[in-house]
Design brief:
By secondary structure, the protein is an alpha/beta fold. Strand 9 (about 270-275), helix 9 and strand 10 (about 295) form a beta-alpha-beta unit. It has a 5-stranded mixed sheet with strand order 3-2-1-4-5, sandwiched between helices. The protein is globular and about 60 Å long. Helices cover about 40% and strands about 20% of the residues. It binds 5'-O-[(R)-(carboxyoxy)(hydroxy)phosphoryl]adenosine and zinc ion. Zinc ion binds near residues 119, 148, 276 and 306.
């Protein structure tokens, strides 16, 4: 079926299924706002296994995605949208394929463009959707810190689709380190909020854990050693979980602060955008807000974790910038952020 030639591209349906959240949202490109949004979290499903089970995640997306799309369209009072954006990677391949298959199928049925979106691009442009950083106030270039369960990245954002990765984790992602620490301390999944909550009652002076890779130049991270340090400490002091939790949280936050300060100096940027699930961490927010001479922008908490709104939003930006959508179904478990192309109209 030929694509509808619509010079106006008012609405984009966004589909997110890269991990354990089924997210659906509709972005109105004329209003620059999300008009309907639904999210289903699989946390309960995976909690009993202590972490995300990829096969269970895919099956649950299959069950939940179509009804969520129907409900979101009904919420917006629309029979369909003018384009569809979906997370094409990185993420769990089976889970990604569910979203990609549904997006391409619907796109064909409706005769509308289908846009594959990079999950991390969704996160790093999410602050443009609201909260601290209305679109008109955020100017390129800026530095973005992406901290989630699967990624720890410092990125120089020169423009839409124009990203340079300044540093990333060599091993565990920050969120993963929180999740593993939670497991070691006998807390539930997801670990980040559980460790943060426990840390509130801890003694910050009792233990000091290392700030990995801060004593050498560069913007790379490594968090797997910290997890081992937590393990050793917990073996020695099994009744000191809260004190260990705060020692871990302080070590992570200070490490991120040091690297962010370095990245801002190195790129001569004065704006830092923080995104990804770990951006919900209160202690990290407070620490980053204290960076001198830096404007620090966080998306609202609901936009920090995985959601369909950030995907619909990137789809809308790419359409507005005249990007020719791909027609093939795409799903990539690994997808380096700096291989994305800047739209032709934004090229220098
Ligand atoms: O971005 P996200 O929702 O999913 C991924 O793409 O990974 O991030 C989830 C991660 C989990 O590892 C979770 O433990 C962590 O974000 N997280 C937190 C907090 N809330 C969520 N970590 C630290 N403190 C929090 N308050
Ligand atoms: Zn994410």
């Amino acid at each position: 079926m030929p694509l509808r030639h619509n010079t106006r591209m008012p609405t984009v349906l966004g589909i997110e299924t890269s991990c354990d959240e089924t997210g659906v949202a509709i972005f109105d490109t004329e209003r620059g706002a999300i008009v309907a949004e639904r999210l289903y979290s699989q946390i309960e499903l995976h909690a009993q296994h202590g972490g995300v089970v990829p096969e269970l995640a895919s099956r649950d997306h299959v069950k939940k995605l179509a009804p969520l799309i129907e409900q979101t369209l009904a919420d917006a009072g629309l029979p369909r949208t003018d384009a569809i954006a979906y997370t094409a990677g990185p993420g769990l391949l089976g889970a990604l394929l569910v979203g990609a298959g549904v997006a391409v199928g619907l796109g064909n049925a409706w005769g509308v463009p289908v846009i594959p979106v990079h999950h991390m691009e969704g996160h790093l442009l999410a602050p443009l959707l609201g909260g601290d950083a209305p679109a008109q106030n955020l100017q390129f270039p800026f530095v973005a810190l992406l901290v989630s369960g699967g990624h720890t990245l410092l990125v120089l954002v020169r423009g839409l689709g124009d990203y340079a990765v300044l540093g990333e984790s060599r091993d565990d992602a920050v969120g993963e380190a929180f999740d593993k620490t939670a497991k070691l301390l006998g807390l539930g999944y997801p670990g980040g909020p559980a460790v943060a909550k426990l840390a509130l009652g801890g003694d910050p002076e009792r233990f000091r854990l290392p700030r990995p890779m801060t004593d050498r130049p560069g913007l790379e991270f490594s968090f797997s050693g910290l997890k081992t340090a937590v393990y050793t400490l917990h073996q020695k002091h099994p009744d000191a979980a809260a004190d260990i939790a705060i020692a871990f949280e302080l070590a992570v936050v200070e490490t991120l602060l040091i690297k962010c300060r370095r990245a801002l100096e190195q790129t001569d940027c004065d704006t830092l955008v923080v995104a990804g699930g770990v951006a919900a961490n209160q202690r990290l927010r407070e620490g980053l807000n204290g960076l001198p001479g830096t404007r620090v922008l966080f998306p609202p908490p609901a936009l920090c974790t995985d959601n369909g709104a950030m995907i619909a939003h990137v789809g809308g930006l790419r359409l507005a910038d005249g990007v020719c959508p791909a027609t093939d179904m795409a799903a990539r478990a690994r997808w380096p952020l700096d291989t994305l192309q800047a739209p032709v109209t934004s090229a220098p």
